[in-house]
Amino acid sequence: MDAERLKSMQGPLKDRYRAEPSSARITLRAAGNATETIACKLETGKGMVEAGLHPATGGTGLQACSGDMLLEALVACAGVTLRAVATAIGVELRDARVIAEGDLDFRGTLGVSKDARVGFEKIRLRFELDTGATEEQRATLLRLTERYCVVLQTLRAPPAFSVEAGPAAQGAFAGSLASRPED
Predict the structure, then answer these.
(1) CA distances from residue 152 to 113, 157, 158 in whole angstroms, order as listed
(2) Within 10 Å of residue 86's Cβ, how many Cβ atoms?
(3) Is 99 contained in some domain?
(4) pLDDT 10s digits, 103-145
(5) Which of 3, 13, 116, 160 has its Cβ near the most Cβ atoms within 10 Å?
(6) Which domain holds residue 131?
(7) Percent of the residues in the chain that have a pLDDT greater than 90, as a whole number
(8) DSSP E strands: which ranges in 36-139?
């Protein structure tokens, strides 16, 4: 894809979002079913994916790991953003590899140590670029990629978050609690 084609695709969207800011607000959704095998079957645009425990927490390694999936989402978003920015600013990329690494201490998620963080302690994102771009062009490319990568920016500045049990789950929990003898 070239810059003109990208601009022709995105131009009408940008114009609409400027004229009607509310039209730019959408809700993305993901859903899955937690299974009895300590897994979660996710509905994706490309089919079902079954996520399970990481081997460091007792999993077999045969299922997808949600921590890996988070890093994969970061790589995917950064890679798409990198290519879009390169196209828009006219930087030719002969090849581009995006690598994300994240450090975890599984004592946290297993409840072994209250001092160990649950979740990633550190995430590193690296770009290996094969390009004839100048150092200044490379710096601009990386700066703009970082600025416009949705997943990177979401991890860097987490959004407001809520956790709730919907009506079906509340009923199931209420039923199980009601049948428990009191302590």
Answers:
(1) 28, 9, 10
(2) 22
(3) yes
(4) 999 999 999 999 999 999 999 999 999 999 999 999 999 999 9
(5) 116
(6) 65-158
(7) 80
(8) 39-44, 47-52, 93-104, 120-131
